[in-house]
Amino acid sequence: MRLSKESLYNALYGNIKGENKAFGYLCLDGLSGILRLVLIMAVDLFEYLNYRDFLRDAYEAEHAKNWRFSHRFIADIGGFDATLFNKILQGKRNLTPRLVSSFASIFCKDDREKEYFTNMVSFNQAKTHSESRQFLERLVATKECKVQALAKDQFEYFDQWYHAVVRELLSIYPYVGDDYELGLMVRPPISAAQVKSSIALLERLSLVRKKEDGSYEQTEGFITSGVETYNTAVNAYIQQNLNVAQDAMDRFPGTERNLSTLVFSCDEEAYKDLVEMVRRFRREVLGRVAACKKSNRVFQLGMQVFPLSDPYPPPLRRGRKRRIRGSEADHE
Fold first, then answer.
1. Each residue of 206-249: pLDDT tens digit?
2. Phi and psi (nearest 5°) for 218?
3. How many CB atoms lie within 10 A of CB 274?
4. Residues 218, 165: contact at Cβ < 8 Å?
5. What is the residue range of 15's domain?
6. Which of 321, 86, 125, 325 minimizes the C-alpha distance to 230?
């Protein structure tokens, strides 16, 4: 069957709205000549806490409706290089205030969405934990925000080092509401109020569940929302655990702890191998722990690999001059 120009246009670009926030379009199969209906879920900005995820999904939805909506098309509107958008999606580039304004104009429908998008970028690119929390509170305060409770609870989980400890204790301690006693089991001890609020948080996050006899057990749930979304919160959480490890030297005798450190020099390739070795070791540790039949104590195992010096020779940087052993090197 031959299609008229008008029919072909409608087949390629005709949108079909649905009640479930889905949209569709008719696609003509060039080989079979069959019209196919393609359904795509609409993208709701207020369901996101990570602006890269939103930009990726919003772009794919728009591109599916109109193939002319490409990376180059976005670059032409925003006035930047065509490769920049892909670098942003990959996490290789952050958004500057000018780019925030450009992308908000392209992907946001009104001022309310533009404000939410701007706060989301600030949340993801925050430098400190307090700054990150400030912008998260702005996001969840938006009445259209669809991730209010979950976002606040996940952020709160990383606020305190002892939430993970309480979760592990519930698997070995027959807790039935004795908050004070459970708090004394933690080292250093925490208050009964902290235990009560921690268990309530773990329940909301589906990390523990209450059994018929009133005790608790762990679930298979876990916290994940993308590295960038909670990066400052996770960093603050790691810092708390490092502080706990430092205090452990005085809190426990040498027979109950194993602390060591190693300083070495290596190249970039060896560093990457070491990082992979640490990942494999973590998996081995989890495997061994899972095989325990009668766990009776909670432990912390910390692993850190970080530089203690600048690389030598220093990396070349455009327009920079750096003095090396008394001689000046001009890096163009």
1. 889 998 888 898 887 555 444 455 667 777 788 888 889 988 88
2. -75, 155
3. 13
4. no
5. 5-41
6. 125
Q: Which of 145, 166, 191 is the last residue of a domain?
A: 145
**Tens-digit pLDDT profile for residues 279-323:** 999 889 988 988 888 899 999 999 989 999 999 988 776 555 555
Q: What is the dihedral of CA 39, 42, 48, 54, to 10 degrees?
A: 80
| Helix, strand or coil, per DSSP, at residue 93 | coil
Contact status, residue 199 vs residue 216, Cβ threshold 8 Å: yes
Structural element, H or E, at residue 215: none
3-state secondary structure (DSSP) of residue 79:
coil
Describe the strand order of the beta sheet including 15-17 as a list of residue ranges. Answer: 15-17, 22-28, 35-41
Residue type, 191: S
In 3D space, the residue among 109, 71, 107 whose CA is nearest the CA of residue 88 turns out to be: 71
Question: By 3-state DSSP, what share of the chain in percent is helix, strand and coil, each rounded to 5?
Answer: 50, 10, 40
Measure the CA–CA gap between 57 and 51, rounded to whole angstroms. Answer: 10
Opening angle at CA 105, ends 65 and 128, nearest 5: 115
SS3 (DSSP) at 118: helix
Helix (H) or strand (E) holding 188: none
Give the other-Cβ count within 10 Å of 174's Cβ: 11
pTM above 0.85, yes or no: no
Joined together, the tokens standing for residue 177 give 């509401």
**Same domain? 54 vs 136:** yes
Same domain, residue pair 66 and 88: yes
